[in-house]
Amino acid sequence: MRQRETDKGGQMAREITIVDVADEAGVSYATVSRVINNKAHVSPEKRERVLRAMAQLGYVVNMQARSLAGGESRVVGLLVDYLSSSYMDEIIRGIDEALDAENYDLMLYTTHRRKTKESAYVTKLTRGLADGLLLILPRNAAAYLDTLRQRQFPHVIVDYLNNKQNVPSVSATNFRGAYDAMSFLLSLGHQRIGFITGTMELGSARDRLDGYHAALKDHGIPADPHLISEGNFMQPQGYQCAQELLSLSERPTAIFASNDMMAFGVMEAARERGLRLPEDLSIVGFDDIPQASYVHPALTTIRQPLEEMGRSAAHLLLKYIAHPNAEIERIELPTHLIIRESCQALSFTS
């Protein structure tokens, strides 16, 4: 085995290079490069020798150098604003499953809702660390989308809808889902329906509010601005918004929350006030995260196919990595009303 140079303390004096791996395996530099980049035209026997030499020498692939040399990092960057939700978990599960099947690794960055961090991470990931970029619910996309497009850097946004920009994206039918939720509550006789929005800078939140308004209009019911409370997709804010709505002199008989987490906050606020669910208050959420079927009463909600959204986004990104000039696609996956126990028809005593 080739001896590695060490300093007086027995530590490595220099980094193992691809040339060392080639010498150790008895193959050419080009063969080692093909193995590292997972290319074809390498015999199984030579591939095994290269991998064994890499392990023996402790060679670590420099992803950035490999990318700058014209190779692939086989890494996809993923940018999210937070991790503490089943919504995010389900999407990431779909992404990870799709990438793993194609031998890609995932590099995750969390922005903690800081717009400056989002831009900084995008810059970092696109400078050789990753072959492509996935962004879930970006909050500062306008700051870098033009740059990504001009550089033809493969990217896909998940749960982003902006009709003014032709951006590769995967989302669900947010407007239709909200319209269906409202139509269901209206069919049960509810007319004073409170609505808790999501973060209004996000396209999905705006679409759900539009669906709420459209359903009221189509049923001939005037919108009451006092019945709309601005949330942020988090459970504590759902609780606070529900407290406001339930404090109205004429409280709503039903509340539609823009996601399941806020609907759980509504349940908590209602119980604190001694309201029975669903006898005194019907509740509908949006997402159908796993917990929705386990709470009591089980939550009626709009299911968006979160795992499938993640898988579709990953597949779309891999297409752009292989074909940078491919036509831009904007995929909208269907939503479905899931009826459980948190709603009932309005009674005359409500």
From TrEMBL:
Keyword DNA-binding found: yes
Query: To which species is this protein native?
Result: Ktedonobacter racemifer DSM 44963
Domain HTH lacI-type, residue spans: 16-70
Query: Which Gene3D superfamilies does the record cross-reference, listed alphabetically?
Result: 3.40.50.2300, lambda repressor-like DNA-binding domains
Q: Which Gene Ontology molecular function entries are recorded, alphabetically?
A: DNA-binding transcription factor activity; transcription cis-regulatory region binding
Q: Name it.
A: Transcriptional regulator, LacI family
Coiled-coil stretches noted in the UniProt entry, renumbered to this chain: none
Keywords from the named record: DNA-binding, Transcription, Transcription regulation
The question of whether Transport is a record keyword is answered with no
- Which branch of life, at top level? Bacteria
SMART domains assigned to the protein according to its UniProt record, in alphabetical order:
HTH_LACI
